[in-house]
Amino acid sequence: MGYRFNDLTAACQDDWRAYIEHDFVLQLGQGLLADDAFRHYLKQDYLFLIHFARAYALAAYKSPTLADLRQAHEGLKAILDVELELHVGYCREWGIAEEQLTDLPEARATLAYTRYVLDTGNRGDLLDLHVALAPCVVGYGEIADWLNAQPSTVRGEGNPYDAWIAMYESDDFQAAMRAELEWLDARLADVTPARFAELCTVFRDATRLEIDFWQMGLDRTD
Ligand SMILES: Cc1ncc(CO)c(N)n1
Predict the structure, then answer these.
(1) Which UniProt keywords apply (predicted)?
(2) Cα–Cα nearest to 74, from 137, 5, 148
(3) Which of 12, 91, 136, 200 is catalytic?
């Protein structure tokens, strides 16, 4: 007993590394990612973020205490006011108007991941839901750090994707990530080994769906 978030990533190291170090991420860091792959990803990510905001609203509904409710509220605000706000502006810079985003057909990888998270939250408890959300919040923060540690990563004007990396290394996003980590570390501290094994399954499934999301971008699949 006495688990922490790091025990979840340690339990599915191969999937976690395949997500963080995916070719989509590597090519984005090098500035070599095909721009239509990036546009496809950006558009689907708009739909993804809307369902993610709904998942935080579900977390609010499932919160038994004021502290849990505040944590869910912070997550919802981070998505609506920080990430989606930046995302819509960023899409515009890439020639994708907001009207185009609202009419978008949802790709299967987007459907699978977002509905998996919502279903996990519906049938499980608040901890199941936060564990299903963790690869997203914690993963993208870690991806920004990993990119910055790669010698092949190009920062600044030489990389058309520089602003994307900047979004996930920003203080706002990193603070949301730390708050999620703290919340998870506090809750995981008391779970039994059997419960931890269940949570590992949720975490691994969500991580594999993140891998599929990158692949959907690379392959432009719908
Ligand atoms: C698919 C996906 N996962 C995580 C994040 C980070 O919020 C995002 N924007 N999109």
Answers:
(1) Hydrolase, Thiamine biosynthesis
(2) 137
(3) 136
* Tens digits of residue pLDDT in 178-194: 989 999 999 999 999 99
Query: Which protein residue has the closest C-alpha to ligand 1 atom 6?
Result: 136
Instruction: Quote the ligand 1 centre to 139 CA distance (angstroms).
Output: 8
0.95 surpassed by complex ipTM: yes
Among this protein's residues, is 136 annotated catalytic? yes
Could you tell me the CATH superfamily of domain 5-219? Heme oxygenase-like (1.20.910.10)
Q: What are phi and psi of 186, to 5 degrees?
A: -65, -40
In the chain, domain spans: 5-219
Rounded to two decimals, the pTM is: 0.95
